[in-house]
Write a structure and sequence with these properties.
The complex is a heterodimer.
Chain A lengths: L1 E7 L2 E7 L5 H8 L18 E4 L2 E4 L12 E3 L16 H8 L9 H14 L5 H7 L11 H14 L27
Parallel strand pairs in A: 1-5
Antiparallel strand pairs in A: 1-2, 3-4, 3-5
Chain B lengths: L30 H4 L16 E7 L5 E7 L1 H4 L4 E6 H4 L28 E2 L5 E7 L2 H8 L3 E6 L6 H4 L15 E8 H4 L5 H7 L2 E12 L8 E7 L2 E6 L4 H12 L6 E4 L15 H13 L3 E4 L2 H7 L3 E12 L5 E13 L8 H6 L12 E9 L13 H19 L3 H8 L8 E2 L5 E2 L4 H12 L1 H13 L4 E11 L7 H6 L8 E7 L5 E5 L8 H13 L6 E4 L17 H28 L6 E4 L2 E4 L2 E7 H10 L13 E5 L8 E11 L5 E11 L6 H20 L30 E5 L17 H18 L13 H10 L5 H10 L5 H4 L4 H4 L4
Parallel strand pairs in B: 1-12, 10-11, 14-15, 20-21, 27-28
Antiparallel strand pairs in B: 1-5, 2-4, 2-6, 3-5, 7-15, 8-13, 9-10, 9-12, 13-14, 16-17, 18-26, 19-20, 19-25, 22-23, 23-24, 26-27
The chains are: A alpha+beta, B alpha+beta.
């Protein structure tokens, strides 16, 4: 066992870990930070992405001992404030607004990777978003609404409205309502 | 009916007090917990005293277990128990197969853990139970097993030959069943052989549906907690209700002593429509030890052992007149069952039997299918389940027929598809298509993609002999969804019905609990069902809570698959809401001292006709009947209600998908230049969710065409056993999609919904392949086997024909590393000899 000191989502922890323990397993099994999930065992899917000293890492490729003395931010630590009055991170909000998630399993990693992408490139094109998140797999969305979400968040974070039509959300086909055969 | 070309519209406002919720792009209620990491995935569960399971899996595809020693593993630190197949043989029963498609189907049974023999790589051989996940995994290394190898059966076409080694000693051949649908015999069409004999033109093709892996993002996970003789199982499943019944039958645990909960579930796509060996093993071991147990798979375990999809060899013949009028269709399938029959393994190709005629007016049709055992992991449902295979074959051969007739592929389709004025239309497969307009969807899709300009560019590139050629491919598809009318399922020998249940509980404060038997795993039921109920009851969207996925809360249900949730489950919600209003009307009339007949119900309020000002809201009625101080004699003091809806017909979403594809003839690489589709999924409850479902389906359908294949080597090892090798596409691998809708309400349910979960996946694959072929057809290419890897495309372009498909296909199945190029000589049967 090796002792580590690590700051996760604003709180300090001191723990003994097996040297082989991966950061993701430390987060999930010892700290109960189960918002970060494990999607594969080859570091391909990115579901476990967290920030280590401000940079996105796949926490299945980092040993817990490597995080000794570091700051870790998980999906559970990106909103500000607590409980029902917490303010979501703009990227979280944009994923919701643009329907950038379905089952939501990849979402924590996708959001953490996207935040990091926007730090590097505050105004990415569609293509740059697609390349920027290619280390994170999603099986539900086909990525289009994730791309929209990231660009929407970029616009919000830079204080501009999203004027690029590509970054717009789905059309509302309100005409569909007229076809509802049954109304109370 | 509008085309919704999304980039053109600047915003998607949500009217916060809309007249109708249905049709609004409500943002999802589900998202709040998912975007903040406050989720309850099964693997997040921690229970006091919980033990962890790790499974030792067979490294051989076919062999007898001659020696199995677990004693050293039992001595490892923190190991509580180790079980083998012999330990559990008496109590494990057989995993269920609910779809005996023919009376004489051979089902050898499927133990959850192998006893004497293993039949595919990855089959469970021993289970370690330990205090921690890591201790259990470590102890696997101390288990000693010897196998006597048996001949490995991998290739279906070889497996059905006389004299082939057998997967199961107990059977006389590797054929599990022979399923036939003959329209002539069924009375839904003419004699097929005669139709072919009389036809002016026939085209025959052999298509390969490669083996795919559903690859849901959340690995499977199970937790079982025993309490006396009661058991609670949490499982990452699509089917908690079906799982409960089946697990009870397999283990002998009385059904009423077993509660199954599907908490947050991270995708399924059919892959979690299963009763898993590990679910049974967790129950058996929790029963033995009296302790809670957990099993969570690794991704490698998931790819290797969770059921696969597709894997068919399709022989399809089409007969037509010279003017393009189709005369007959004949289909013969070899469908790879894998080593065992799982929950609906044999039914998947049989379900597809009814969709091969597509949207076309064939007078004659015959389908036959052999289900074949091989030493591979079983196949079962994967998004579309039988219908993508059928759609691929018919949409591909329509293009081949067009080439043969020198006709425009769209013109050939127009000539043969069912006209909008012909609905309801009974097809040659005996299905009654209720509504739609194939012409309208096609016209809108052509506009959306900018068809004329693309064709002009294609011509320019051809004339310039551009190394990058452009092709345009179509898929004008329909599917049978809303599974399913119970009587029809009965006639197909399916082991269950197709109804769905919902109940509505009116709480004293006016809030509404909706309980649905349909079980979401990403589809957004909580949002869509809230929209439906808000309209039906006239209550705010926010006042509705949707409960699901727990057999103790939602007592009856048949879960989520086959694009059934909204069509069947949503309709059950509508029916339950109607009953709530009926019951509330009685109470309201009493409280208002009016006749029920004089009451009107709009916007959540009962008013008295002709008496302005007199009225009571349904939420107030809920409080009044909770207090129950004043209600009519002989009436129950509740306005809660439940309803079960059994559809009388399937629903038939349709659409036109168009792919424009660039093919680099020098490198073989392909790139989707544009993709447009117009889908008719009937009434749209939430356009945001519909669009998302289409996008996700497109991604998976395109992935079949371009990227994904589960490949076994000659020894039966899965060589695509991780996400390094099994190419689930990333964002950079997929194009932007232009999507639109036409809306022709389904007539088979009051919502008018047709289902959307599978549409994109079913429609897109042939559009993509047809586009690639259209780009290089003039270079002598007749077919390219999926997935269209650069190597396959390059070979096809440079060798002509199908680029040695048959040989290459064999090499994939058998993993031969040599001789592929040499074997790629012309094989007339693989191209049909037409070109």
């Amino acid at each position: 066992m090796t002792q580590i000191n690590v700051r996760v989502d604003g709180a300090s922890y001191q723990d003994d870990v097996e040297p082989r323990t991966l950061l993701v397993h430390y987060l999930r099994e010892q700290l109960g930070k189960v918002g970060t999930v494990v999607g594969c065992d080859t570091s391909n899917c990115g579901a476990c992405t967290v920030h280590l000293d401000g940079n996105a890492v796949k926490s299945c490729t980092v040993l817990a001992v490597q995080a000794d003395g570091c700051q870790v931010t998980t999906i559970e630590g990106v909103a500000t404030g607590e409980g029902p009055t917490a303010t979501l991170h703009p990227v979280q909000r944009a994923f919701h607004e643009m329907h950038g998630l379905q089952c939501g399993f990849c979402t924590p990693g996708m959001i953490m990777a996207s935040i990091d992408l926007l730090k590097e490139n505050p105004d990415p094109s569609d293509e740059e978003v697609r390349e920027g998140i290619e280390g994170n797999l999603c099986r539900c969305t086909g990525y289009q609404n994730i791309v929209r979400a990231v660009r929407q968040a970029a616009a919000e974070m830079s204080g501009q409205a999203a004027d690029d039509p590509e970054a717009s959300p789905a059309v509302v086909d309100t005409a569909a309502a007229e076809h509802v055969a049954v109304q109370a | 009916m509008t085309v919704t070309d999304d980039p053109a519209v600047p915003d998607a406002p949500v009217d916060l007090a809309p007249a109708k919720e249905v049709g609004q792009a409500r943002r999802r209620k589900e998202d709040a917990r998912l975007i903040t990491g406050k989720t309850t995935w099964t693997d997040n569960m921690v229970l006091p005293g919980m033990l962890h399971l790790a499974v030792l899996r067979s490294p051989v595809a076919h062999g007898r277990i001659t020696h199995l020693d677990v004693s050293a593993a039992k001595e490892r630190p923190n190991v509580v128990a180790v079980y083998t197949g012999r330990d559990l043989a008496e109590e494990q029963g057989s995993l269920p197969c609910a779809w005996p498609v023919t009376p004489d189907m051979v089902n050898p049974g499927h133990p959850s853990i192998a006893v004497d023999q293993v039949n595919h790589v990855g089959e469970a051989v021993a289970v370690v139970v330990a205090r921690s996940r890591t201790a259990a995994a470590d102890a696997l290394e101390a288990i000693d097993v010897d196998y006597e190898p048996l001949p490995v059966v991998l290739d279906m076409e070889q497996a059905v030959q006389e004299g082939s080694p057998l997967v199961h000693d107990s059977t006389s051949s590797n054929t599990s069943y022979h399923f036939v649908f003959d329209a002539g015999e069924a009375g839904t069409g003419a004699d097929t052989d005669q139709a072919f004999a009389d036809a002016e033109v026939t085209v025959s093709r052999r298509f390969v549906q490669q083996r795919l892996i559903p690859a849901f993002m959340e690995p499977r996970s199970v937790v079982v907690q025993p309490s006396g003789d009661n058991y609670t199982m949490w499982s990452a499943t699509q089917i908690p209700h079906i799982l409960r019944v089946m697990a009870a039958m397999v283990t002998g645990i009385p059904e009423h002593k077993l509660r199954v909960i599907a908490p947050d579930v991270g995708g399924g796509f059919g892959g979690k429509l299963q009763v898993n060996p590990e679910e049974i093993l967790c129950l058996l071991i929790a029963r033995r030890l009296g302790k809670p147990v957990k099993w969570t798979e690794t991704r490698s375990e998931s790819l290797m052992t969770a059921h696969h999809g597709r894997d068919q060899v399709q022989f399809i013949d089409i007969a037509a007149d010279r003017d393009g009028t189709v005369r007959g269709l004949r289909v013969r399938l070899l469908a790879d069952m894998g080593a065992y029959l799982r929950l609906i393994t044999p039914g998947v190709p049989a379900l597809g039997a009814f969709m091969f005629p597509g949207i076309y007016k064939f007078p004659a049709y015959r389908f036959e299918c052999d289900g074949v055992f091989t030493n591979k992991v079983p196949t079962d449902a994967y998004r579309g389940a039988g219908r993508p295979e059928a759609t691929f074959a018919i949409e591909r051969i329509m293009d081949e027929l067009a080439v043969e007739l020198d006709m425009d592929p769209l013109e050939l389709r127009r000539k043969n598809w069912i006209g909008a004025e012909e609905f309801p239309f009974t097809t040659v497969a005996g299905l009654e298509y209720d509504s739609g307009d194939y012409h309208q969807a096609t016209e809108q899709a052509l506009q959306l993609i900018g068809y004329d300009e693309l064709r002009a560019e294609q011509q320019r590139r051809r004339e310039a002999n551009d190394p990058v050629q452009l092709g345009i491919g179509f898929s004008t598809f329909t599917e049978m969804c809303g599974l399913a009318p119970s009587r029809v399922l009965g006639s197909l020998a399916f082991g269950a019905g197709g109804w769905e249940q919902a109940s509505i509980r009116m709480l004293p404060t006016g809030k509404v609990e909706v309980v649905t038997g349909s079980t979401p795993h990403g589809q957004g039921h909580e949002t869509a069902w809230s929209q439906i109920v808000a309209d039906q009851l006239g209550v705010p969207f926010e006042d509705v809570e949707v409960l699901h996925g727990d057999t103790s809360i939602s007592s009856r249900g048949l879960d989520t698959y086959g694009s059934r949730s909204l069509v069947v489950g949503g309709t059950a919600v509508v029916k339950a809401a109607e009953k709530v209003v009926q019951k509330a009307r009685v109470i309201a009339a009493h409280l208002l001292e009016a006749s029920e007949d004089d009451l009107e119900f709009t916007g959540g309020k009962f008013t008295v006709r002709g008496t302005p000002g007199a009225g009571i809201g349904i939420q107030e009625v809920a409080l009044a009947i909770f207090a129950a101080h004043d209600y009519p004699e002989g009436v129950e003091p509740t306005i809660d209600a439940e309803a079960t809806f059994d559809p009388e017909n399937f629903s038939f979403p349709h659409g036109t998908h168009i792919c424009a594809m660039e093919v680099d003839t020098e490198t073989g690489s392909v790139k989707i230049r544009k993709y447009a589709c117009v889908d008719d999924v009937g009434t749209i409850v939430n356009p945001l969710i519909v669009e998302g479902q289409v996008h996700g389906g497109l991604a998976q359908g395109i992935a079949q065409a371009l990227y994904e294949e589960a490949i076994y080597d000659a020894d039966g090892n899965l060589t695509t056993g991780s996400f390094v090798d099994y190419l689930v596409p990333a964002a950079s691998d997929l194009p932007h999609f232009d999507t639109g809708n036409t809306v022709h309400a389904a007539t088979s349910n009051p919502l008018g919904a047709k289902g959307v979960g599978e549409a994109g996946c079913i429609a897109s694959t042939p559009a993509v392949v047809n586009a690639a072929l259209d780009a290089v057809r003039h270079l002598g290419v007749t077919d390219i086997r999926m997935p269209l890897t650069p190597e396959r495309v390059w070979r096809a372009v440079h060798q002509g024909g199908d680029g040695g498909d048959r040989a290459a296909a064999g090499s994939n199945a058998q993993g031969a590393s040599s001789g592929e190029a040499a074997a790629a000589s012309t094989d007339p049967s693989s191209t049909g000899g037409h070109l």
